[in-house]
Amino acid sequence: MAAMATASGQQQSDCCFSTPDSGQHFQFQNWTIKADQAKKAEFIRTAEKLKNQLVNIEKDKNGHLYSKKSDFRVEYSTLEELEHKMTNNRKAEKAKIQQQLAKIHNNVKRLQRQLKDVKPTPEFVEKLREMMEEAENAINGFKEEQRLIYEELMKEEKTATNELSALQKKIDTWALGSSAIERVFRLPSGKVPVDKTLQNHLPEEVVEFERFLQQTGGRQGGWDDYDHQHFLKVWTKHKGKPSYIEEALEYLSGRTKEDIQQHETWYQEFLILEERKKESIEKWKMKKQQEKQEILKQKQKSEKMLKTENLQQEAAQKQKAEKERKKQQAAVEAWKRHKEIEFAMKQASRLKEEEEREKKQQKECQRQFQLKLLLEKYTRQKEEQEALQKLEKEKREEAEREERKRIAAEEMSKFQERDLHKLEVKILGKQAKEEEKIEKEKRLAKLREKVEVHVTRDPSRLYKPTKGWEERTKEIGPTDVQPLLHIPHRAIPTWRQGL
């Protein structure tokens, strides 16, 4: 929708140059756009605020109502299922709305793309008109559907508000009645009159029953709970026959026969008044239900009148929108004429440019064709030269291979002769070394024969002094030992002498 508004704004801004009151119309259009933008911003802020409130309410609800620790978990399970169902319905409705909006958005985008390339042909104009009508019908249909849904929700909201108000009044009445009854139980019997507010809000039978309770000591007739329960047990057992008194005296040791008879009289009157109270409450409920139905009838009647007024307003708005649409359509037609003239001028200039471009392309093609022929000729000559060079290179390599084979054969014969010579020299050297080794062994044998010593064993020589020791004892004579008379030490300074 925003894209449609933008496209419409562009069209009107283009056509404003061809109308007399274009300045005022342009200012009005800008003011309308700004007002729409302000409304959208306000709506977004309100939606965010409501969303935050909804999140807080959801937290409180989940914490108090749907908690597993709650005492009323079973009673609230039905409410939880209903809420889950409504949540799924909301999600489905949201998905449907998003799908419709996406469809409208695609239609507007397609219309924008068509407006960027306008063709001055009747077919294109007809196609553009159909696209505009399709987008407009989609937008109007979506708005109408949402309006009906909104009106239905408004009705449901009013109904829920009225029901909540009635329920609140009923709760207030119950609270007021319970507080009055509690005050009665706290006051002495027969001394406090019935509250005036209780008389104004409750039926006469209910007031009479409450007054009876106030005057007679509450729902147990002034007795304590123990005595009253035993009385009820025995009285119920004998079905109210006089024979119950003897058994009741056994349980109620502190009570006399007259007390029991008086309590029975009070209890019978209590039952009669309580039954009247129940019947009165039922009648009061039926009366309230009838009043509620009357209110609903009046509400439906007022809603019909309001719907009639809304239909009249919608008809007036549709007429106004139709006038605005016709005005916009006239502006679009003027814009189309202006664009057709502009397009024709652009087309003529484009045709001229295309002719010049074709001439340049032909010249360029001829030049490229000549260059291609020259390049093919040069490539063919180069290939022939490379073939000749390759053939010459192969012949030269073949001659070199033959020469290398011949030189290798000659070198091979030389190496074989040299190896044979080396082998002969090595064999001769080995024979010479063996002969020299034999001669050396012979010389050593002769030397061993010359130096070999033949000595006999003499064990007594072990204890005799050696020749060296004997010679040493001859050289060392006797020595004289003298006593040590003087020990050398450091000199004493003169200033210490005599101390």
UniProtKB/TrEMBL annotation:
Question: Which keywords, in A-to-Z order, does the entry hold?
Answer: Coiled coil
Where is this chain compositionally biased, Basic and acidic residues type? 298-307, 317-326
Q: Where is this region: Disordered?
A: 298-326
Would the keyword Coiled coil be found if you checked this record's keyword annotation? yes
The residues forming a coiled coil are: 33-60, 94-170
Q: Does the keyword Isomerase apply?
A: no
PANTHER family given for it?
COILED-COIL DOMAIN-CONTAINING PROTEIN 112, MUTATED IN BLADDER CANCER 1
User: Per its record, how is this protein called by name?
Assistant: Zinc finger protein ZFPM2
What organism, scientifically named, is this protein from?
A: Platysternon megacephalum (big-headed turtle)
Lineage per the UniProt record: Eukaryota, Metazoa, Chordata, Craniata, Vertebrata
